[in-house]
């Protein structure tokens, strides 16, 4: 849900259900890297409330579009981390298998 002004779309608060500090802090970090963002922060209204509020203020671009771009950037970072991790695991397994074969042949 977006809570903002129709007259100034560069400032909005987004209320996201079923999210917590993990997602909110990641989005906050990603958005604060964007030069269009003048402020980004988040709050959790109550510990038992499974909801997070993310405030986005921009230099003039619609906050909704900037948030969407930030989420897409975060998704690309996650894909990169996952593929790098998977490659490292496969390399480790391949190296371990080669080492075990060399030890067995001695």
Major sheet: order of its strands?
A: 1-2-4-3
Q: What's the Cα radius of gyration?
A: 21 Å
Q: Shape, please? A: elongated
The amount of helix comes to 40-55%
- Written as H for each helix and E for each strand, in order along the chain, the element string is EEHEEH
Q: How many distinct helices?
A: 2
Assign the structural class, choosing from mainly alpha, mainly beta, alpha/beta, alpha+beta, or little secondary structure: alpha+beta
Biggest sheet descriptor: 4 strands, antiparallel
Terminus-to-terminus distance: 65 Å
Percent in strands:
15-25%
Mean pLDDT: 91
* Number of DSSP-assigned strands: 4
Set down the secondary structure blueprint.
Elements: E1 2-4, E2 11-17, H1 21-32, E3 37-43, E4 51-58, H2 63-105
Antiparallel strand pairs: 1-2, 2-4, 3-4
Question: What can you see in these coordinates?
Answer:
With 106 residues, the protein is an alpha+beta fold. 52% of the residues lie in helices and 24% in strands. The chain is built from two helices and four strands; from the N terminus they run ββαββα. The chain has helices spanning 21-32, 63-105, and strands at residues 2-4, 11-17, 37-43, 51-58. It has a four-stranded antiparallel sheet, with helices on one face. Helix 1 (21-32) packs across helix 2. The longest helix has 43 residues, at 63-105.
């Amino acid at each position: 849900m977006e809570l903002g002004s129709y007259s100034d779309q560069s400032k909005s608060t987004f209320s996201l259900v079923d999210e917590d500090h993990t997602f909110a802090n990641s989005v906050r970090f990603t958005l604060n890297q964007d030069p269009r963002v003048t402020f980004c922060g988040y709050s959790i209204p109550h510990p038992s409330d499974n909801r997070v509020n993310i405030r986005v203020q921009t230099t003039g671009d619609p906050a909704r579009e900037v948030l969407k771009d930030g989420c897409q950037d975060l998704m690309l970072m996650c894909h990169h981390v996952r593929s790098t991790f998977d490659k490292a695991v496969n390399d480790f397994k391949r190296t371990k298998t080669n080492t075990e074969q060399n030890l067995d042949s001695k």
